[in-house]
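DOMAIN: structural biology
WANTED: fold as tokens
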Amino acid sequence: MAAPFLLPQIHIANASCSILVLLALFVTTSMSSDIFLDWNVSFDFNVKPVSTDQPVITINDMFPGPLINASTNDIVHVNVFNYLDEPLLFTWNGIEQRLNSWQDGVSGTNCPIQPSRNWTYVFPIKDQIGTFSYFPSINFLKAAGGFGPIRVNNLPFISAPFPKPEAEFDLLIGDWYNSSYKDIRSKLNISDVISPNWMLINGKGPYLNPVSKSYETLNVTQGKTYLLRISNVGTFWSFNFRIQNHDMVLVETEGSYVNQLTLKSLDVHVGQSYSVLVTANQDSSAEYYMVASPKLLRDTTNPISLVGVAILHYDNSTIKPNGPLPKGPDPFDLEFSINQAKSIRWNLSTGAARPNPQGTFNVTNVTIVETFILKASMAKINHSSSPRYAVNNVSYLTPDTPLKLADFLVNGSGVYVLDAFPINTSNTNAVSGVFVASAIYKGWTEIVIKNTLDTIDSWHLDGYSFFVVGMGEGEWRAESRSSYNLYDPVARSTVQVFPGGWSALYVYPDNPGMWNLRSQNLNNWFLGEELYVRVYDPDPNPAKEKSPPQNLLLCGKFQPPSPAPSVAPTPSPSSNANTPHTPRSLFAIITTAICFFFIGLH
């Protein structure tokens, strides 16, 4: 009687293992790994990048924070231990969080990590390559640091459209205040815009400035070519970057390979990232200046601090750089800036995250089904003397309950009203409110952003790359569409909008979730220049949108009855150098071996 039962067992075993083997082979093909990071986030009063007593946010005692070095389709686990004295969230600038806005790390998607608590982000870097950054997203914390670089490398079988460089360098460049972020934050509601005082390069002050504790140096060998990954991690200033006597070849921006451009200098706006190739082809006995100078600023009182200066050091050099810093374009020359931005075009023929050409998915013949026209401005709410920033005359009011949490649990009831404010015109009176607009799922959308401010604004959409189809000075009109580039517009996630001008974007809302659309300029963002875009797919299939994570935090209307237990101290700090990577291909091999062994037993 045993035989009739043994045969089905073998079939079941074989079938089960066949499925497992196929799954394993599929996972092997994806060649993804799990990356595990433990981050101890704390204040450090000894960093003093400009010799000022101020709290600097470090991660594992590092400022800037550690590199997240991943490849396409890797899954990143970041266990954040909050040792600050206030709540904390991190956002992953440009990482699209496919089907998973639960991991986006902004006030509308996540309850904050409270002091002395920890929380683990888990997110796949699905179908992306390129240069990105991360930073704290709430409470003006970015002005104190906590930012760091993200690299997403190509899969081994997909070549980049340029030879492998000798080495890669991350350049995190941004403005910096010379006082505590808490002091600046407290003054934002009672005074006009406060401008930063310094420009740091990788957290270090300008070369030759007596107040700088140290300065940044990149070491190169003559004849070799290097990839520089440049990100503007500042809060206010756009900057122009250049290297004395060296050209740069622009190759990538925020996950898109571009038609290669040889440049003397490059504008980088707040929140933007670029990759450039630099060949060390000058006299190797000398060193050379690397300079980042703010746009729309001609400061005569403190030019030494407001210009970031670092050194390109040849390994045999003995001569320190001398003479004036290399000149860039006039900081008020918007025509230069607009023309350079328009010259950055998508490389249609190369593969990126996938082997098929980027241009396979393009906007040449799309049909727009909806248009957002968003005007950024300053406003005084209810005749208040405190200035606020607004979108269509609505200054965003952050609720205690994250929008995504309310959306999932009570369909937003009591937290926000969907489409309560206009997306094509401005509200009649300036108001504060929870601005949530719906986008049509899988309906091509045009977003026009107008800037009535007197500074360069910078806008970002979480969850997506959008196509920058146009930008210009003056008022946008329907006739402006005739100037759009619909052949090879670059796809990216952060776009500059020049003062008194406009930028136009095309986006395909195929990523369900609650997504933040905001100014990257920290003052503007903190004081209300943002909204959320709800992309809804009624299909409950988790393949369409992921369910809440098992470690979901509750807050606001859904405050848990008692606080979670305090976390134990973290293990010794980890960095990317010793980050455990669990290759899924190894899992596949082990699974396959177990299956064949199991079959053999039968």
